[in-house]
Amino acid sequence: MVGPVRRSGTPHWFANAPDGSLGSLLMSHVLAAVAWPYANGPRHIGHVSGFGVPSDVFARYMRMAGHDVLMVSGTDEHGTPIQVQADADGVTPRELADRYNKVIVEDLHGLGLSYDLFTRTTTRNHYAVVQELFEGMYRNGYIVPKTTMGAISPSTGRTLPDRYIEGTCPICGYDSARGDQCDNCGNQLDPIDLINPKSRINGETPKFVETEHFFLDLPALAEVLRQWLDTREGWRPNVLRFSRNLLDDLQPRAITRDLEWGVPIPLDDWRDRPDKRIYVWFDAVIGYLSASIEWARRSGDPDAWRKYWSADGAGKDAQSYYFMGKDNIVFHSVIWPALLSGYSGEGSRDGEPGELGRLNLPTEVVSSEYLTMEGRKFSSSRKVVIYVRDFLERYDADALRYFIAAAGPESNDTDFTWAEFLRRNNDELVAGWGNLVNRCVSMAAKNFGAIPPVDPAGLTEADQALLAVARTGFTTVGDLIGRHRQKQAIGEAMKVVAEANRYLSEQAPWKLKDEADKPRMGTILHVALQVISDANTLLTPFLPHSAQQVHELLGGTGVHAPMPVIEQVDDLDGGPAYPVLTGDYTVGARWESVSIEAGRPLAAPKPVFRKLDPSIVDEELARLAD
Ligand SMILES: [Zn+2]
């Protein structure tokens, strides 16, 4: 856990820092590594609730607290499902990936996710980094060749992946078992054992042939992984337990496939073969590193990535947090650390680090649970779905961000219902927070034309108590976000809002109409506006769009919450151009209370959030059903 950085002066949260140690207040290099969305279609709100919003809340808070954050990700574009879908659509896999890369970039931009670089796995830079890791691990003996029996389609000659083969389960007799698993009895299967196997793509009977592939020697890395997991602190207990259990039964795992679409195998006699590629899960996890290297190359300092990655040099004290849904834990808590350890020469076969040097293993794997929709699993084919794009056409990004933070699947599977979305938007965002802002700004503008001064008579106990609640929020909320307890964190921030509303009801400044009472009215509004300013800062990581608006309503200028931009860039190594998400996040509010200035003009009040009509619930449910 890293606390906020001490800046000039002595901010209140410094005095309140829980452990008080200077060490926790030093600036850290922090990598926010966000799961790579698969580019075979648009993403729905279940996807972005697992990886997108939580990682952005964390990255925004850490930057505000003074840390040096690098947040990277991109679209995951290789693998059989993209090849299969491209074939069905009559386009090339690259064309299909181009289409959905663009859609996903626009969606994440719409949500205001502050990536330093959101790229893709089809860049030449990514290919080169994947091949470097493959070669390093191969040299160290952690990647080994092996002959296996693989299914091919007799008509195309292409490999048929396990999940595209269907047949009768040899164990329970279920007639629609998949090559990798029987959904009826739950047993793991091998496609060669299926009775009457058929291709799910075209119905033909697959042929099983001997084929040579490369395997990742996971058993040779089990011990170093166990030692690493034993030193992990603060992980969600279910993630740690699940990861430890995986180590008990590690088998060598194939990392190449018979496929034309993917990264070529960088060994002599292999690199020019059109029919053998590195498998998608192996190349996609390496994206965290390749995207960091791409970001550094674009920044003008090609070595800047080392601050987040080098285990020996510039990055030896860096921290790295990986964000994903729970179906991806194995890739981040076992496979990726295994690749990093093998490349660094740290498994039971020893070895030497490759030319990138020894690399950091994850500090923490932050996994979310599942979001369901109206009690059902998200399913594009059954239309139990709402895509990010459709959502953002009808509602504001912060309304969704609020729902995900306050009611998302942080540590339990949770259900998205339109009724609950409506309730949280109207009762909590609009009536709780938005009205507080509007009432106070309007009353101050009407009666004073600016932020009113504090009466020389001074502050009452009630005034001081409310200001203290807001200031304490910086410690409480920041600490909770730093420990990935975002649901509690936004709850604490909204408690400040609730306290401010209670204070206003009790103080009733609207009753102080006599000229003699005006100084007291001014003091109450000054206190309320100060607490609004503080609460707005506490809510900024969660609600960046509305935080900028509230900042401006309070008469603030400049960037309060920086936003990502989409840029069309050239491939650094001569490949086709593509859009990336990037931004300048060095500007914006810091994680501290900033005193509001009496006399500063207030902007004309306008609602920050949109109240939704209850009829949207039936409209949305009707969309689901048709
Ligand atoms: Zn079965």
UniProtKB/TrEMBL annotation:
Domain Methionyl-tRNA synthetase anticodon-binding: 460-579
Placement of sequence motif 'HIGH' region: 37-47
Record key words, sorted: Aminoacyl-tRNA synthetase, ATP-binding, Cytoplasm, Ligase, Metal-binding, Nucleotide-binding, Protein biosynthesis, Zinc
Domain of life: Bacteria
Cofactor(s) this protein cannot do without: Zn(2+)
Chain sites annotated for binding Zn(2+): C169, C172, C182, C185
Free-text comment on the cofactor: Binds 1 zinc ion per subunit.
One Pfam family here: tRNA-synt_1g
Catalysis performed (reactions): tRNA(Met) + L-methionine + ATP = L-methionyl-tRNA(Met) + AMP + diphosphate
EC nos: 6.1.1.10
Family per similarity comment: Belongs to the class-I aminoacyl-tRNA synthetase family. MetG type 1 subfamily.
Assembly notes: Monomer.
PANTHER family with a match to the protein in the record: METHIONINE--TRNA LIGASE (PTHR45765), METHIONINE--TRNA LIGASE, CYTOPLASMIC (PTHR45765:SF1)
Protein's name according to its UniProt entry: Methionine--tRNA ligase
Organism of this sequence: Micromonospora noduli
Record lineage: Bacteria, Bacillati, Actinomycetota, Actinomycetes, Micromonosporales
Name of the gene encoding the protein in the UniProt record: metG
